[in-house]
Amino acid sequence: MSAEKSIIIACLKRATAAAAVVAVHIAALHGAAQAQVPGEMLPVEMSLAAFSIERDVTPIAAPSGLPAGTPAVGVPEGRSIPPALLKLVSPQSAVSPTQAACSAPAELAHFDRPLLHTMRRLESGKPLTIVAIGSSSTAGAGATSAAATYPSRLAAELRARFPGHDITVLNRGVNGEETDDMMARFANDVFAAHPQLVLWQVGTNSVLRDHPLDSHSIELHKGIEELKAVTDADVVLIDLQYAPKVLAKSETPGMVDQITIAAKEENVDLFRRFEVMRDWHELQHLGFGVFVSSDMLHMNDWGYACWAKLIGAAIADAATRPIASAAAHPAHTP
Questions:
Q1: Domain containing 288 — which CATH number?
Q2: Which of 87, 181, 219, 257 has its C-alpha lying 20 to 30 A from 45's C-alpha?
Q3: Over the stretch 12-34, which tens digit does the pLDDT of each residue have?
Q4: Which residues, including other chains, have CB under 8 Å from residue 76's CB and lie 6 or more apart?
């Protein structure tokens, strides 16, 4: 065998060995990727909307420590969001919930209309009753205890702002409910308490279950009008949470707009929870883990506490404005 042929054969053997090593590395990397993301590999550009919320309802237990009257009802069950995909839509935050500062732009944590019934009640020195009605966000899904729910936090916030006043915030949230379900409870859970302020958290479950926006708009206007007609109370709407499973639904922007328009047309106030939470995430660069629980739907203790702090400040401001400002937006007289 010539020297030239020997060299050629040696080179071919080395190339074959190198190709075998590369093949082993590729197989190892492929296996690791499959372990991180179940099923087929997802393209990087795939949107969060690929993880839809199922229509099925799964019974869940009420959060630990919630009042006995809070039933363990169902909420929409959705697929878990793989951490690898969540990183694509959630900027990493070096801030933990214990370090994050609770804040929001003034124009978001502000009511356009004064709370005249609340104002007059505080001025009279009589007990102030507030009813918080809604679904799982109000009931406290995601909170570690009843004391960590937003209504409980709000009561503590308002008592600190108005020392010496008897202030009660009644938690009338029920997991999984939609607008018509809450309206069916108005008589027993709202009207019977004779509140001076009603906080109505609404809209999320209709979006999660892909219900039509048009029919929801009719129900929402009817509900607001019923609250204004029957109660001698101020009414504040609270819109959706800014959380991955809500953002995955195509009707979310339309529902946020619908609630904003309804508040304006019905001359009631609105707490813009969706925009407040969007500010936390997009402008303050807080990761979802700071204010959303592990289910990527409900808020956590930090989220509920900050929500209560901000809406408490908005209530205090709207209930203590000068009379000249209040006269610009007269309260409804039933």
A1: 3.40.50.1110
A2: 257
A3: 555 555 454 444 444 443 443 33
A4: 53, 54, 55, 56, 57, 176, 205, 208, 209
